């Protein structure tokens, strides 16, 4: 004679119920409720059923002690199972994230490399075409091609900087001599834009602790001031000072100021920035400053834009 299963007797299977429970996502609420039910059942068994059914005080004390030992053993096993399961789930998620990050990095690098190479070809071809035209300075189409291809190249560079920024921990921040940093950046900017007028005022002993990509952020701030200046010979002032708590870098220009769309880029993130055509420059600067433990600020200026880098000071 065969013994009927729980499914045959009661319409459900204990094995299936256990499999369902083990597949549960053990949220804090479910863990608390499970422990509450088991704890309440244990108290009811020891303080109600045993007291009513066991008349011998000595035997009751032994049963209570045994029950207490089982509770300790069950609690330890319960914590071990939860910890092991959480650790295994965390390891699986970390492995999946590492794999996704590696795939994203490879795809982004291949895409940026190919796109940059293609834009370089477009720029070279447009430059050659403009040279062969009778009046190259009057051809708006050629000028538009050069501007847009240059914008795409800058987008690739900003995306690369953002990716490198996320891969550096706070422990890898470096002490940066701001005087040397500003001199090197201004020299590079003057090579790119010969008509720019830049003055600097940075103390020789001023050092900040920041992300290694701070130079890229400063170059973007100065380049952005030049591109939005609107004057034939824009004037830009780069200065730095030490305050009571921080080191502050100022980039002031005589242009029309920061466009409203750039402020929207900082508030809404890169998706809105790209959608509205403002690029990643301002957002990249903000990210580098945040990763440096500092902040990107804007101050009103009577004659143009005023970008402020707030940084942590460092001892020389």
TrEMBL record:
The chain crosses the membrane at residues 33-51, 63-83. Its EC number is 2.7.13.3. Gene3D superfamilies: 1.10.287.130, Histidine kinase-like ATPase, C-terminal domain. InterPro entries: 2C_sensor_his_kinase, HATPase_C_sf, HATPase_dom, His_kinase_dom. CDD domains: HATPase (cd00075). It is an enzyme of class 2 (transferase). Keywords: ATP-binding, Kinase, Membrane, Nucleotide-binding, Transferase, Transmembrane, Transmembrane helix. The keyword Transcription regulation does not apply. GO terms for molecular function: ATP binding; protein histidine kinase activity. Residues 110-315 form the Histidine kinase domain. It catalyses: ATP + protein L-histidine = ADP + protein N-phospho-L-histidine. The keyword Isomerase does not apply. It comes from the Archaea. This is histidine kinase. The lineage of its organism: Archaea, Methanobacteriati, Methanobacteriota, Stenosarchaea group, Halobacteria.
